[in-house]
Amino acid sequence: MIGILIALLSGALMSIQGIFNTGLTKSSSMWLANSWVQFSAFLVCMIAWISCDRKSFVSLFQMQPKYMLLGGVIGAFITYTVIKSMSMLGPAKAVMIILVAQLLVAYLTELFGMFGVEKVTFEWKRLFGMLICIAGILIFKWD
User: Fold this and answer.
1) What's the whole-model pTM score?
2) Model pLDDT for residues 53-64, shown as the tens digit of each residue
3) For residue 94, which of 4, 55, 89, 113 is within the disulfide window of CB 3.0 to 4.6 Å?
4) CB 24 within 8 A of CB 37
5) pLDDT tens string 110-127
6) Predicted local distance difference test score (pLDDT) of residue 9
7) What's the per-residue H, E or C state across the chain?
């Protein structure tokens, strides 16, 4: 149950962050806003690390496979694409499409066991659920 509550909070925060970041670009520029978002996140993480964890930085670079270190790089492009999609589509439509894309990529990652994720077997009900989500986007977008 706590996992569900945390996931709900995460979704709510992501939507609000997207709106804030999109607004920030209106008074600056895309990459300046993105830099501020990533820098402020860095500061918060450093404060949390100093307060709670203090595990050695060396452990980061012992990570195998090394491509797992690219999360921050991907994060910069996530911020960019969220800002662009929200400014072009509006928050609700953008978030719906982003969520379906996340769901599809997450399911394919599990289905093929990519990036060290435990492989799952194909289930028609999951494909049907994905199609219902896509239909929901089409209904929502229908003017």
Assistant:
1) 0.85
2) 888 888 888 989
3) 89
4) yes
5) 999 999 999 999 999 999
6) 94
7) CHHHHHHHHHHHHHHHHHHHHHHHHHHCCHHHHHHHHHHHHHHHHHHHHHHHHCCCCHHHHCCCCHHHHHHHHHHHHHHHHHHHHHHHHCHHHHHHHHHHHHHHHHHHHHHHCHHHCCCCCCCHHHHHHHHHHHHHHHHHHCC
Residue type, 32: L
